[in-house]
Amino acid sequence: MGDMALAWRQYRLERRMFWRNPTAAFFSFVLPLIFLVLFGALLSGDRENLEIIVPGIAGLSVMATTFNALASQMTFLRDQGVLKRMRGTPLPANAYLAGIIGNAATNAFVQIIIVVLAGRLAFDLGWPKDWLVLVVFTLLGVACFASIGVAFSHVIPNFEASAAYTNIVFLPLIFISGVFYDVNDVPAFLHDIANALPLVHVIDGLSAALVTGADFGDLASDLGALAVWTAAGIFFAVRGFSWSGSREE
Q1: What is the pTM of this model?
Q2: Is 37 within 8 Å of 132 (Cβ atoms)?
Q3: Residues near 190 by beta carbon (within 8 Å), at least 6 away in sequence
């Protein structure tokens, strides 16, 4: 079998394993929706704020299903010796990793679809203004946060510490990046920090697709920032990658 066919089989296995873990499914799909429902109920009739919350939750979902999930999963696989054992099998490394990353990417796209449907059916925000922008920024967000998640897993000492390490990045980032409010309303120094990080640029792109209808020309700086972060994430993900846990090296 070719590498593509093997990657597809590994991807299908990852999907089955994902759905057999209810906790993972809950935090990947239900938790962001709880945020959406709660804020939607609080802001019912406040269209201006709903147009901020919906793209913000979409961006949060992309980060949670890629960065958080992959940082924890890669740490677990390395810590338990799974990566080392897989390295010794005939399955090509690229096919195995493609299956894992493809599973996370699928979760991100499913989340975006759910958020789009919720925005349309529950909050009457209408369908996306630009589907191409939506797809491109979802893909960029997935690539960016997936690569950063794998890279970040290299600094997590063990699986028990993974939740603390990922949340130390995830929670501050969602609060300064305009997930729950307009990022332009935060103090200037926090605004500058947010603009130096990737999440706000993903949210800007999703907001353009879902709400404002801005085109790629208006989003050039966001595209550039995400491209830089993705390149950096891939570089450090590859450079620091290890098939063995630190205790075995």
Answers
A1: 0.88
A2: no
A3: 176
CA distances from 10 to 58, 92, 144 (A): 27, 11, 22
CA nearest neighbour of 119 among 60, 174, 37:
37
Q: Please, what is the angle between helix 47-63 and helix 131-153, to 10°?
A: 40
Using CA atoms, how far apart are residues 95 and 176, in angstroms rounded to an integer? 36
Q: How many domains does the chain have?
A: 1
Burial of 86 (0-12, 13-18, 19+ CB in 10 A): middle
| Containing structural domain, residue 172 | 3-248
pLDDT in tens, 105-155: 999 999 899 888 888 887 777 889 999 999 999 999 999 999 999 999 999
Element spanning 24, H or E = helix 22-25
| Six token digits for residue 69 | 């999930």
